[in-house]
Amino acid sequence: MKKILFIDNTAHHLLGQLHLMNGFKAHGFNVECLVPDDGDYFVKINELGFKCHSIQLDGKSRSIFKNHALIRKYNHEFFKIKPSLICSFTIKPNLYGAMAARSHKIPFIAGVTGLGTAFMKKNLLNSIVVRLYQFAFKDVNCVFFQNNDDRQTLEHKKIIHKRTLSIALPGDGVDLQKFQYVEKLQTQNYQFVYAGRIIADKGIYELIEAFRVVKSKYANSKLILIGNYFPGNHSAIYESEVNQWVDEGLIEYHGMVDNVEEYITNSDSVVLASYREGLPRVLLEASSIGRVIITVDSIGCKDVVEDGVTGYMAKVKDVDSLAQAMIKFIELPHDEKVKMGKAGRLKMEREFDQKIVINKYLEVANQLLHAKE
Fold first, then answer.
1. Considering the entire predicted model, what is its pTM?
2. Contact predicate 175/354, CB 8 Å
3. What does the domain layout of the chain look like in residue ranges?
């Protein structure tokens, strides 16, 4: 039985690839995982039937010594686990996992879930990161992207070699059975939901200021934030700031939840004003349930919405544009909101079914494994 090893920077993030792990398992592969042990999601993945190996990983450190040590750790674990193929996600596992896999001649699939802030500006950090990607990815067998912009960026910078499979997928796809269509009943209280990391790069400051405008005109509107704080992130938003918005009566903050689908179902609209994404899963889930999505014209976000058909698209980092999109939604007749929600569901069925992603991974994995034999 071929062993497939999934690696990621956190167990929580890897849990989002459960559809892929189940897909490989259903096709007769032995699936194991290599992630930091967080004492919670690590245990959950084990309980779901996937053996987890622990590795220490500092996702935010830029220390050369720590990153070199991470390569050694991956080398040690790969030698011990002996996988037939590795599926990697997020930046550090993609980079340093690929370097370690090269010395073991293990086929490697990198899943680029987003390029991060280093690709937002042309500066010294960007130059360093590009060179790092060029070195790390020179022997990677396949790179899956969540949008064509990221693929074109890495191809333009000569990070993707001609011999490397370069494929854009519909993000992680969406589980159409779990996130089933539920028609929203008419209401006079408008509830917006944001679900994601509590950091500035997600456009939260713009969302807060836009909602001030909305709330001043429609006092019966509500904004709920869901997600964890990331104090080590360069654009961290701290608990004290969020508490001020809560005390002001502007928002409700519900922290990290395991029932995101219930929040989406009970909402009128899901809003994401992120500066850059791979392909935001929360927007896929919201459209699948039939909720009108409001987002911005940034990389990743713009690939999910059809402006005026399945939702509204504002300008990135533009408070007025975002506020007007939210107000436009509120003032839309209820039957038009339902129509847009149904259009979103149909778009998910046509373009973003999770089965598309699973089948493409299995196709490439089998191709690489057969080539190795």
1. 0.86
2. yes
3. 3-173+353-372, 190-351
Buried b / exposed e over 163-180, threshold 16 CB at 10 Å, is ebebebbbbbbbbbeebe
SS (H, E, C) the chain: CCEEEEECCCHHHHHCCHHHHHHHHHCCCEEEEEECCCCCHHHHHHHCCCEEEECCCCCCCCCHHHHHHHHHHHHHHHHHHCCCEEEEECHHHHHHHHHHHHHHCCCEEEEECCCCHHHCCCCHHHHHHHHHHHHHHHHCCEEEECCHHHHHHHHHCCCCCCCCEEEECCCCCECCCCCCCCCCCCCCCEEEEEECCEEHHHCHHHHHHHHHHHHHHCCCEEEEEECCECCCCCCECCHHHHHHHHHCCCCEECCCCCCHHHHHHHCCEEECCCCCCCCCHHHHHHHHHCCEEEEECCCCHHHCCCECCCEEEECCCCHHHHHHHHHHHHCCCHHHHHHHHHHHHHHHHHHCEHHHHHHHHHHHHHHHHHHHC
Report the pLDDT averaged over residues 322-332.
Answer: 97
Nearest to 35 by CA among 13, 15, 58, 10: 10
CA 357 to chain centre: 14
Backbone angles phi, psi at 166, to 5 degrees: -125, 110
Res 19 pLDDT > 70: yes
* C-alpha–C-alpha distance, residues 161 and 333, integer Å: 51
Contacts of 154 (CB under 8 A, 6+ apart): 112, 115, 133, 137, 143, 145, 160, 166
- Highest mean pLDDT range out of 56-60, 123-127, 282-286? 282-286
At the second CATH level, the architecture of 190-351 is 3-Layer(aba) Sandwich (3.40)
Q: Which CATH superfamily is domain 3-173+353-372 in?
A: Glycogen Phosphorylase B; (3.40.50.2000)
